[in-house]
Design goal:
Length: about 350
């Protein structure tokens, strides 16, 4: 067992209204994750390759100012609702709620990535751990209910970065939390991820319309470029003449996980980089996972002088399905007073 010590804390700058923001370093013998309480962003994540060489696997910025200025949600906690809600509106208990439009006519990802969270070192024998809490007030971005949210990042001695999400509400509401880490298993800024392999344990996905909103259909992946039931290079089929790939400008879709015991931890996806030998396993209690292949990265100047272009990273965002509040047939994203929302996702790093 790893001996739990205090996590290292350093200054990371100030928000425009003068709030101090910190950077916390969670480390075990091999893996080091640096997380800021601004948006709960994973700023860096170093893991060894098969020869023991350390690389930083996540895209991001060197300074807080850049995360504040503009970000495609690099490494952040996403809420209240991960992914899109069509026309930025939904009804609950006969009341229509209007949300902030921040993606054309739609609502995308909310604003938890821009909040300063309260941080606490909760390290234990389970590993070094950082607890982040935030009170999302009734009406934030248009969502009903005061929503105290807690996110705990734990780095275990098995090289797992475990993320435990929990929340309660004082009014009926909807909720969908995830983390938006952009991974490149060859190291951030080291080119595209098209040779890296992905496996997703899902027989179905949710096709989208031209605005990236699910149509409501759960479509079989069989015989399509969306079949990742056996590990396949991300780039093997990404440019095929396929209507759904065109709609997403690559992969930017939600897969319906084959978890036989809904709500229990399930191996949702595995990624592998044949060059470095790095393996990333993603386990989750969530019913869905978004594979986004960085289709909109367009020459962003990131960490260590690196430039991030199209398809230089992939995201595996564990989640409820996009636009669930407008699709009663999807697993419900509703949370009611008295209920306790809990969700866990594990990113596990190894080599082969
Ligand atoms: C969405 C993409 C979006 C990206 C960055 C992903 O979760 O599915 O459409 O461009 O996040 O915002």
């Amino acid at each position: 067992m790893q001996v739990a010590t205090e996590i290292r804390k350093q200054a990371f700058g100030h928000t425009s209204d003068g709030m101090a923001v910190e950077l916390y370093t969670l480390a075990n013998r091999e893996v080091e994750a640096r997380i800021t309480n601004y948006g709960g962003i994973i700023v860096s994540l170093h893991t060894p390759d098969r020869n023991g060489k350390l690389d930083d696997l996540v895209l991001g910025y060197d300074s807080l100012d850049k995360y504040i200025a503009k970000t495609p949600y690099f490494g952040a906690i996403i809420g209240r609702y991960a992914n899109r809600i069509a026309h930025a509106t939904f009804s609950l208990d006969g009341i229509t709620y209007t949300l902030a439009k921040n993606d054309g006519d739609n609502h995308l990802h909310g604003g938890f990535n821009k909040r300063v969270w309260t941080a606490k070192d909760v390290s234990s024998s389970a590993g070094q751990a950082l607890e982040l809490t935030y009170l999302s007030k009734d009406g934030e971005e248009g969502f009903p209910g005061n929503l105290p949210v807690k996110v705990v990042y734990t780095l275990t001695d098995k090289n797992e970065l475990k993320i435990d999400y929990s929340a309660t509400t004082d009014k009926d509401t909807v909720l969908n939390l995830t983390n938006h880490a952009y991974f490149n298993l060859a190291g951030q800024g080291n080119g595209d991820i098209l040779q890296q392999h992905i496996m997703i344990q899902a027989d179905r996905f949710t096709p989208i319309d031209q605005f990236s909103i699910p149509t409501g259909e759960l479509r079989s992946v069989k015989g399509t470029p969306f079949d990742f039931t056996t590990a396949t290079a991300i780039g093997a089929r990404i440019d095929q003449d396929d209507q759904q790939l065109k709609m997403g400008k690559g992969y930017d879709h939600n897969w319906v996980l084959n978890n036989p015991a809904a709500g229990s931890l399930f191996l949702a996806a595995q990624a592998y980089d044949p060059h470095s030998g790095r393996v990333l396993e993603v386990l989750t209690t969530e019913p869905g996972i978004q594979l986004y292949t960085g289709n909109f990265l367009d020459g962003i100047h990131g960490k260590d002088g690196k430039v991030y272009d199209r398809r230089n990273a992939f995201c595996l965002e564990t989640q409820h399905f996009p636009d669930s509040p407008n699709h009663p047939s999807f697993p419900t994203s509703e949370l009611k007073p008295g209920q306790h929302f809990e969700s866990t996702t594990v990113y596990k790093f190894s080599t082969k």
